[in-house]
Amino acid sequence: MTKHNRIRRRLLSSEFYQFVLQLEYPSDSLLPKTSVDYKYLSYLLLENSSQQPFKHILFSYWLNWTEPIGYDSAAHSFCQVDDSHKKKAECLTLLRKGRSIACVSRETGKSRCFVKSIALLANVNTRLKPTKLSPSVCKTAIVLARRGFHRKEIARRLSISIGSVEMLISATIGLVQWRKQCKYESKRRRYEHQILRYRQKYPQAIRRDIKSNCNAAFFWLYIHERAWLEDNLPIATPPSLPPRFK
């Protein structure tokens, strides 16, 4: 930190990137791209910014288990890690010591769901009480989520809460993006089919009729799939002038 409480992002990003290079982690989307990727750390340090929990855990681990970066003592004291980051690192340390979810929750003051999400992200085996989220249940829930089942249906089939399903989905790398893509493709196919069926039923319909009777489908496709919409709409007819102007 500087004497004006500004974060030295250049030095911090450079040192953190050197640490990341040693990990050889398979997913590049969760890591900084270069040593000057200041945006990566800026979003993590913003109080109201929502980021992937894995990024917070990785950054907290680096801050807690590496030597402090050299700094000018005349400028200011070294940056203190945000309390929420320290709590995540503390939870992870206790979990790796074999403590139960309930025990870690009591010692850190964090909720059981918070501790469970940390354990799932770090792939730490825990003693869950009650043991509804067993390894087989977690695996089945992830498989169903990858196949596009709704969270409520997954919870009903496995007799667990919807919150537990959401936690498992968010803790699985790439699953949230996959489900968003599946939802997008499903909506695209449904709206395209709606437009095609309307044209088959009313072959003489003009663009204005389709826009009026298939309003949601028309505007969604206009925004997201405009090329397809233009190819499958009737040919635009020129406006006809009133008789007195002919």
Could you characterize the architecture of this molecule?
- Residues 142-236 form the Transposon Tn7 transposition protein TnsD C-terminal domain.
- InterPro entries: TnsD_C (IPR032750).
- This is Transposon Tn7 transposition protein TnsD C-terminal domain-containing protein.
- The structure is a single chain.
- Helix content is 60%, strand content 0%.
- It contains 13 helices and no strands.
- Helix 6 (112-122) runs parallel beside helix 9 (162-171).
- With 246 residues, it is mostly helical.
- It has 3 domains: 9-51, no CATH class; 82-172, no CATH class; 178-232.
- The chain is elongated and about 85 Å long.
- The termini are far apart.
- It has helices at 9-21, 38-45, 53-65, 83-96, 101-108, 112-122, 135-146, 151-158, 162-171, 175-201, 207-213, 215-224, 226-232.
Give the arrangement of secondary structure elements:
Layout lengths: L8 H13 L16 H8 L7 H13 L17 H14 L4 H8 L3 H11 L12 H12 L4 H8 L3 H10 L3 H27 L5 H7 L1 H10 L1 H7 L14
Helix pairs in contact: 1-2, 3-4, 4-5, 4-6, 5-6, 6-9, 7-8, 8-9, 10-12, 11-12, 12-13
Give a short overview:
The protein has 13 helices and no strands.
Instruction: Report the total helices.
Output: 13
Along the chain, the helix and strand elements come as HHHHHHHHHHHHH
Strand residues, percent: under 5%
Distance between the termini: 77 Å
Number of domains: 3
**Alpha-carbon Rg, integer:** 26 Å
Extract low-pLDDT stretches.
Answer: 70-82
- Net shape: elongated
The whole-number mean of residue pLDDT values reads 79
| Largest sheet, strands/sense/barrel | none
Structural category: mainly alpha
Total strand segments: 0
Q: Into which percent range does the helicity of residues fall? A: 55-70%
